[in-house]
Amino acid sequence: MLSSSYQNQIVNAIKLYFNIIKETAIVIEKIHRPKQGKVLPNVLSKEEVKAILCAHSNLKHKVKLSLIYSCGLRCGELLAFQPHHIDSKRNIVLLKKSKGKKYRIVPLSSKILEMLREYFIIHKPKTYLFEGQKEGLPYDARSLQQVLKQASSKARISKPVTLHWLLHSYATHLLKNGTDLRYIQELLGHNSSKTTEIYTYVSTKNIQQIKSPFDDL
31, 112, 136, 202: most buried by Cβ count inside 10 Å? Predict the structure, then answer.
């Protein structure tokens, strides 16, 4: 059976053929387009996340990964993160270069704040919170992915974990803890609630509460 994406490519090719070769417009709506299947985000358990975050003894690496999970950051957001984005008095983080070039405010965990204070004392970041080998330049994205890969290996997690998995896990764990979906949408900077609703499919909170009829036998 042909995949839905391949079938859609065929429909587009037919439309292009009639427009250019036959110079005839066809009612493309009459041609059935298959619906794209839902692609569920990859999510780690809390135990797996903890194992990854505790894997590195290097404080800088530990803080990078912990900040991504604790604030639900995307890779680009972490690399563009600057010290003044942190508002320690209000326990929030203001992200200026997030998805869609919008402002995004996320809560700052008191636990990660303590880690950041220790990190500041040792590394004294200036322009960016995490700088590369050259002062004033942000950390490299490929190197950041390598940091996660090493942590996953040390934690003995065989899954092909990516940085975005930590973001997905953050959102799913919030939902599982009872956080309203509208707040999660705001935290992640999603324009549509439909984008955020994908996490309802991977949260097992309600499923786990369903009692099997087998238990009554």
Answer: 112
Which token pair is 197? 């609703």
DSSP state of 131: B
Residue 93 identity (one-letter amino acid): V
Q: CA 173 from chain center: how many Å? A: 12
Closest C-alpha to 82, from 126, 50, 113, 47: 126
Q: Which two tokens stand for residue 139?
A: 């950390």
Please give the Cα distance from 190 to 177 (Å, whole number): 20
Higher pLDDT pick, 128 / 30: 128
Question: For all residues of the chain together, what is the average pLDDT?
Answer: 77
Report pTM: 0.71
Cβ–Cβ under 8 Å, residues 67 and 163 = no
Distance CA 15, CA 25 (A): 8
pLDDT tops 50 at residue 187:
yes
Dist. CA 66–CA 7, nearest whole Å: 42
Residue 61, exposed/middle/buried by CB under 10 A (0-12, 13-18, 19+)? buried
**Which class for 149: exposed (0-12), middle (13-18), buried (19 or more C-beta within 10 A)?**
middle
pLDDT digits (tens, 9 = 90+) for 104-123: 788 888 888 999 999 999 99
Dihedrals phi, psi of 57, to nearest 5 degrees:
-90, -20
Instruction: State how far the Cα of 51 lies from the Cα of 29, in Å rounded to an integer.
Output: 50
